Amino acid sequence: MIRIMIVDDQKLLRESFKHIIENNSDMKVVATAVNGLEAYELCGEVNPDIILMDVSMPVCDGLESTKLIKSKYPSIKILILTASNDESDVAEAINYGADGYILKDIGTEELIISIKSTSLGLSIIHRNFLNTYSLNMNKSTHTIQGTVLNIEGIKVSLSEREIKIIQMIVEGQDNKEIGASLFIAEGTVKNTITEIISKLQLKHRTQLAVYAIKNNLV
Fold first, then answer.
1. Per-residue exposure over 84-107, b if at least 16 CB sit within 10 Å of its own CB, e if not
2. Where in the chain is the domain with CATH 3.40.50.2300?
3. Tell me, what DSSP letter sits at residue 144?
4. What CATH architecture applies to the domain 140-214?
5. pTM flag (> 0.70)
6. Cβ of 37: how many Cβ atoms within 10 Å?
7. What number of CA atoms fall less than 13 Å from residue 60's CA on the CB side?
8. Is pLDDT above 70 for 211?
9. 13 neighbors 101 (Cβ within 8 angstroms)
């Protein structure tokens, strides 16, 4: 059962999203909030798996709330669901730790798929923003030469296994699934991903997935 909190200042949208989500037997809305501060305060009480977070809200907006929540509850996944197509909002949300960014004009089926994918560890970013976000996430020049990358003038090599793991992350597989496919321990997968992120001077799994797509690593 995926436990979800909906954060939006518009009552009609909160109720609509709740109705759509709870038509799925494997999802449950455990709380709703009208602004980012209320969402932050509710996290300790209801412990959601995923938060659907709007951006433009009174008192505390979705970006600031994402920063607050991720600093105290890093395991809670945050999927930005907003009407804002401002490219700076996308970059800021991801830099604050958001696990995905989608627009409210998506269909019902796409919303459900996005929630389920996020719960499995797949980073969801609306395709319209991939190019812009890739430029914002790392201002260094990255030149790919096979599996050797130039990161700020330093050559960084990625092994065949590391490239395979990156590909599986982009495909939406979690650490357990990756480990089972490659016949390695889940802990080894986690450590390898941490090392890859460090090598590429990125911050988290979301940036790694976007970087891989943008630079044709997979």
1. beeeebbbbbbbbbbbbbbeeeee
2. 2-134
3. E
4. Orthogonal Bundle (1.10)
5. no
6. 17
7. 17
8. yes
9. no
